[in-house]
UniProtKB/TrEMBL annotation:
Protein name per its UniProtKB record: Hydantoinase A/oxoprolinase domain-containing protein
Pfam families: Hydantoinase_A
Signal peptide start and end residues: none
Coiled-coil features, chain-numbered ranges: none
Domain Hydantoinase A/oxoprolinase: 62-334
GO MF annotation, one: hydrolase activity
Length: 342
């Protein structure tokens, strides 16, 4: 059996195609993703789903979908977003389709009745992967835009928050990511030479620029739009970061900008560590499992800052698969849902 798992985010749509043998064992995983800004190009979703599957579409037995794109400001509210996204998915595939909700996998009829159960529920799909590695742990998934921090006890997620609003309060969601976060939301001043300089509250640079300059990501990882519409070379990122202090590369040296980037990176790690500490203290959990594009440079470093033991999901998945872990988890949940005959 071959199952396609999609994770439809506001900026990226991820795919995992998972092959299962007759005993339900995984025999292969293939992953891919596309940058698709749902706030401006949501009408391209159906085409994007088909392009991601490519030649595999004729072999797919079922499709599972998780989503966070309902938060895109092209929708008036989450219910509208969930219904629209799920409708486009249903129009795309003539196959068994189910969706990840806070209660597990549900069919399209349930989506229409209870759309808010699907809103930003993709972490439900990834938690079982972390539980497989450690039944008692805190799971951190740092993607391009956000960081999930999910407590797991006795192999089951036990998050206190269910909606994004609640999870922002409980420490289980931090709106900071590896690529798309505006640098001005992380720092209001940076070290420069022997002093400090206040930053401009503008969208001059994003965290992708920080991590590219520091060598934490590659140009291939820099899949989001650049703030100034120019390229994503290291030189482009250095220039964008220089503008954070209203400078340019004539006024600042490369070492100056790297000094700033290191500080911004550290403050981002501290933001995640603060939320991780909140969950750690409340749930009395020690082991941390990280995944996502920022699993090493953000998730792992946040755990290490607090002195907590940490493992990455690379213990059970490839590095590429870790980046789209919710899509992998969605495919696994869809296989279970299909086998259960629901």
């Amino acid at each position: 059996m071959k199952i396609a798992g999609f994770d439809i985010g506001g900026a990226n749509t991820d795919l995992a195609v998972v092959d299962f043998d007759e005993k339900g064992n995984i025999t292969g995983i293939k992953t891919d993703f596309r940058y698709l800004p749902m706030w401006s190009r949501k009408d391209e979703l159906s085409l994007t789903l088909l392009e991601l599957l490519g030649d595999d579409i004729d072999d797919i037995d079922a499709v599972g979908v998780s989503m966070t794109a309902e938060l895109a400001d092209s929708y008036q509210n989450k219910s509208e977003g969930v219904r629209d996204i799920s409708r486009m998915v249903m129009d795309t595939f003539n196959l068994p389709v189910a969706f990840v909700s806070l209660q597990g996998m549900v069919n399209y009829e349930t989506v229409l009745k209870e759309p808010l159960e699907l809103a930003a529920a993709n972490w439900i799909a990834t938690a079982p992967l972390a539980a497989y590695m450690a039944p008692d742990c805190i799971f951190i998934d740092t993607g391009s835009t956000t960081t999930d921090i999910i407590p797991i006890k006795n192999g089951t997620e036990c998050a206190k928050g269910r909606t994004d609003l609640q999870r922002l309060a409980t420490g289980e969601l931090v709106y900071t990511g590896t690529l798309r976060t505006n640098v001005a939301t992380i720092v209001d001043k940076v070290p420069l030479k022997d002093g400090w300089v206040r930053t401009a509250s503008e969208l001059f640079a994003v965290t992708a620029d920080v991590h590219l300059v520091l060598g934490n990501i590659t140009r291939e990882d820099y899949t989001s739009e650049t703030p100034d519409g120019s390229g994503n070379s290291r030189e482009d990122s250095l220039l964008r970061l220089s503008r954070v202090v209203c400078g340019d590369m004539d006024l600042l040296s490369e070492d100056d900008v790297i000094q700033m980037a290191r500080y911004i990176h550290q403050k981002q790690v501290e933001q995640v560590a603060e939320a991780l500490e909140q969950v750690h203290q409340r749930e009395n959990l020690e082991m941390v499992i990280t995944t996502g594009l920022g699993m090493d440079v953000i998730g792992r470093k946040a755990a290490e800052l607090l002195g907590l033991p940490v493992r990455t999901m690379e213990d059970i998945l490839t590095t590429e698969d870790c980046v789209v872990a919710p899509a992998v988890g969605t495919a696994l949940l869809m296989h279970q849902f299909t086998e259960s005959g629901k």
